[in-house]
Amino acid sequence: MKTPKTKGRAVGTGFPSFSMLLEALPHLVVVTDPHGGAQQLNARWLEYTGLSFEQAQNRGWLEAIHPYDRQKPDLAWDWERREPQSLEKQPLELEYRLRRFDGVYRWFLGRHAPLLDPGGQLMGWVCTATDVDSHKRVRDSFEHLFQTTPNGVLYQDATGQITDANPAAERILGLTLEQLIGRVATDPRWYALGEDGSRLAEHEHPPLRALHTGKAILGTVIGVYNPVLKATCWLCVDALPQFQPGEDTPYQVYTHFEDITERKQAKTQLETLGLERERLFEQLALEQVRLEAVLAQMPPGVVVADADNRRVSLVNPQLERIYGVSLTPGMALERLERPTFHPGGKRRKGPSPLGRALEGESVSGEELEIERPDGSRAVVLASAAPIYDRQGKLVAAVLTCEDLSQRRLDEAEIRRLSQEIQRGREALTLHGGVAVTPQRFLELMGELYAQFGQPQLEGRLIALLLLKVEPVSLGEVARALEVSKVAVGKVSQVMLRRGDLQIIKSFSSREHLLALTDHNYIRDLSVRRVASWAISILCESLLETNHLDPGITEQIRAHLELHTRVAVALEGVLSPLERHQASVLAEHLRENWDAVPPRDPVTAREERDRLE
Fold first, then answer.
1. What is the pLDDT of residue 12?
2. Segment 416-440 mean pLDDT
3. Which residues pair with 127 in a beta bridge?
């Protein structure tokens, strides 16, 4: 195989197509004779190594290979110690370091394929080299980490059998690599335990869960038996499934685990010590807890102050609420030294009841007003007493106070509600003491709405719908109330625009069905308050004097409760100026009734007549 010398290109006589193929390959290529002498080299090889063809031909190309790698007896270019007849005629793969033109060695993967003549005789070798330096360094780093990491690493195939393990795994598990290979996670010899100490079920093993779900299982704590230590070893296990490109089923699982036996034992000891400490603390604080529980249940506010440092020792929430301050044991008493007044509003002079008790004086049932930090005042009934130890030394003082403000407000509210209830009862004088039947309920609701300035037909329509479980057709309403459909339609339109009524189209009868919404029916707050009381009393009378259908009873009771809640809520909203406001509003509506154009002339005339 004679090769002319051509700078920077692969050369050869008689094989132009073969030379072109060598140049097209993305690898570094050398073609040798049976004894390893270079006959052809592609330009990539010459450019990478920086050797000329003259330097590289014959055995010169081997000079670019690292000396240590050239001495390996198993490499394919060990031609000096072999005869061509003894060389294997099979493709070979090997890794070696190749010197770059700048003197830097990088790792390459060499593939050597034999060239055979038609008779099967060896004519030479085609040697390709692929740069794998980065891959090899990463692989070597991983292998170093695999071998030296203090944490255990296992590889398990798709069936769960262990295929590889690092030295740390052998040490932690107490088994050799030969003993680990082929073992599965569910092997009973592991005596696997869950974190709570119970036997670990087969489906709970992290590697099997990762293989089954295809998801990473992280931070699982399990215990396994170590036959060398003859004890359970506790592990924190991470299991990560691995996939072949383009596949969604794991072909193996990478399991990493850390030996946390000492940590778990220390945690257990700490928990034991912590429980013992808590038991001692509970025992020491038992009396104080009991005392605080008693104070918390006491209706009056209570505070105990130390006589020596004049600081809070105990306090209950009731006293904090009364004084409007937040107190904790150890705080100074200055937060309780608020301005106080006599019931008539005159400023009191001298120390507070608690201050007097700390001087040895007893105070019993003293009524006074205190000013809170936010400026509000509270009327309280205060008592204070000094506390002495067995030797007769003054050690503390206790103050109890009852908030009279809410009691006064409650009394005033009861009087006001009684008056409003009476007003509601007076509004039902039309009731006349006669039993309220369903028919009477229709009549009274109409009269009641008329009394409050609303259309009588609206009140009767509401009563009828309350007595029906299902929506009612327009025709049925007209017949039951003995009015025309036109009249019902007008009232319905007003209530619909106000949001008090909903109209449903029936597909079977092609009629309009009427049903009440959850809204109330009178928008003026002053009127609604009295009306709500009256409607509540009227509904209650109906329920007391009749045995109605359960569904109707529930519906009327809900209506009753709704108006009761509305009436009570409005009591807290309306101000003493409500009469003046109602008068101003009425005057405004009389003068501006046509400020917003009505929907139609009939509606406009009705609204004007109603206001006048």
1. 43
2. 67
3. 30, 112
Domain count for the chain: 4
Spatial distance between the Cα atoms of 270 and 432, rounded to a whole number of angstroms: 80
Most confident of 163-172, 545-554, 576-585: 163-172
- Distance between alpha carbon 470 and the CA centroid of its chain, in Å? 42
| Distance, CA of 560 to CA of 541 (rounded, Å) | 10
Considering the domain boundaries, does residue 531 fall inside one? yes
Residues 120 and 217 in one domain: no
- pTM of the predicted protein model: 0.36
Q: Are 449 and 457 in contact (CB under 8 A)?
A: no
**Which residue has better confidence, 303 or 142?**
303
In whole angstroms, give the CA distance from residue 570 to residue 216: 60
For residue 338, the enclosing domain spans 298-403
Tokens of 419: 């008056």
Task: Confirm if 266 and 236 have CB atoms less than 8 A apart.
Answer: no
560 and 427 within one domain? yes
Query: What percent of the chain lies above the pLDDT cut of 70?
Result: 82
Query: Residue written as tokens 């014959």?
Result: 58
Half-sphere exposure of 399 (CA within 13 A, CB side): 30
State how far the Cα of 97 lies from the Cα of 67, in Å rounded to an integer. Answer: 9
Comparing 40-54, 346-360, 573-587, 598-612, the range with the smallest average pLDDT is: 598-612
Give the C-alpha distances (Å, rounded to integers) separating 189 from 175, 184, 208, 226: 11, 10, 17, 9
Separation of alpha carbons 391 and 260, rounded Å: 58
Convert 406-440 into a string of H (helix), E (strand) and C (coil).
Answer: HHHHHHHHHHHHHHHHHHHHHHCHHHCCCCCCHHH
Residues whose CB is less than 8 angstroms from the CB of residue 454 and which lie 6 or more positions away in sequence, other chains included: 521, 522
Q: Is residue 396 part of a domain?
A: yes
Q: Name the residue among 345, 351, 354 with its Cα closest to residue 379.
A: 345
Please spell the DSSP secondary structure of 63-96, one letter per residue: GGB-HHHHT-TTSTT-GGGS-GGGS--S-EEEEE
| 408 located within any domain | no
Q: Are residues 394 and 459 in the same domain?
A: no
Token pair listed for 461: 């329509």
Cβ neighbourhood burial of 544 (10 Å; 0-12, 13-18, 19+): exposed
Q: Residue 586 — very low, low, confident or very high, per pLDDT cuts 50/70/90?
A: low
Which residues, other chains included, contact 140 with Cβ-Cβ below 8 Å and sequence gap of 6+? none
Domain stop point among 207, 236, 259: 259
Q: Cβ–Cβ contacts within 10 Å for residue 196, how many?
A: 6
Same-domain pairing of 469 and 525: yes
Tell me the helices (H) and strands (E) count for the chain, helix number first.
20, 19
Gap between the Cα atoms of 593 and 595, Å rounded: 6
Between the CA of residue 602 and those of 117, 359, 475, 494, 589, what are the distances in Å? 115, 83, 22, 12, 18
Inside any domain, residue 93: yes
Distance CA 97, CA 328 (A): 77
For residue 80, pLDDT beyond 60: no
pLDDT band at 3 (very low <50, low <70, confident <90, very high): very low
